[in-house]
Amino acid sequence: MASFTTSDGLALHFTDEGQGLPVLCLAGLTRDGRDFDFVAPHLSDIRLIRLDARGRGRSARADPSTYTPAIEARDALELIDHLGLDRVALLGTSRGGIVAMVLAATAHDRLLGVALNDVGPEVDPRGLDAILTYIGRNPAHKTHSDLLMVWPDIIRGFANVPESRFRAEIARLFDEAPEGLRITYDPRLRDAVLSAAAQPSPDLWPLFDALAGLPLAVIRGANSDILAPQTLAEMRRRRPDMIVAEVPDRGHIPYLDEAESLAALRQWMKRL
After folding, report:
1. What CA–CA distance (Å, rounded) separates 236 from 106?
2. How far is the C-alpha of 31 from the C-alpha of 184, rounded, in Å?
3. What tens digit of pLDDT does each residue of 170-194 get?
4. Sequence spans of domains, the chain
5. Domain AB hydrolase-1: where (predicted)?
6. What is the rounded end-to-end Cα distance, in angstroms, of the chain?
7. CA-to-CA distance for 46 and 27, rounded, in angstroms?
8. Which fold has domain 2-126+202-271?
9. Looking at the DSSP assignment, which residues form a beta bridge with residue 51?
């Protein structure tokens, strides 16, 4: 475990494990580097770098106005510089994938390739509406075990998932405290998301098109409410060479250790 200081004076936590091809993992909106715990054992032949974005996990909290993909992309680039790396591959989950597309548009020459986990240049409104119902709020449940009893009903689109996996996921998303479960990120992230949602949706297709020339993979949960089938179809039209995997029995987001996910990631890494 380590940390570095950003250009605006924030201490961000990261892990840097293994040797070989450097792959920087960027987690989802309310998640952190532990989100890649499930896939990490299957990627032992690479240098796996995982960043906790500002305000998430073990990274310092900041002014919520800085919780934006553009500033988070700057943070990721500063981490790459801090590690003395010329180029890295990016594995971006959800929000992390949007950050990866920003980097493709602003620092294309620093990237070896990009893999997107259940995200594209358009966000399905169904998923965004669902996010707004819970972001920044602690659950009413007192313990992980309490939440586990209703977790299959809370998350949508998942089937054939063992209870042990649900329990492990909950432990990464919420801390147990005497007063009950607590989210592992700055509650003021809600302010940033609500502010962004109140603005007209930006056109992210130019960011996707900026991935041109980079090996690209996209993994989609077959039941995702974030990456719609029609969005994926347009992504494939624009990038017919793109590696695509759709994971059955998964909503938003696949865990990345499914057979379909691993096959796509391994094919992608061979192209880097």
Report:
1. 22
2. 8
3. 999 999 999 999 999 999 999 999 9
4. 2-126+202-271
5. 23-264
6. 26
7. 18
8. Rossmann fold (3.40.50)
9. 14, 26
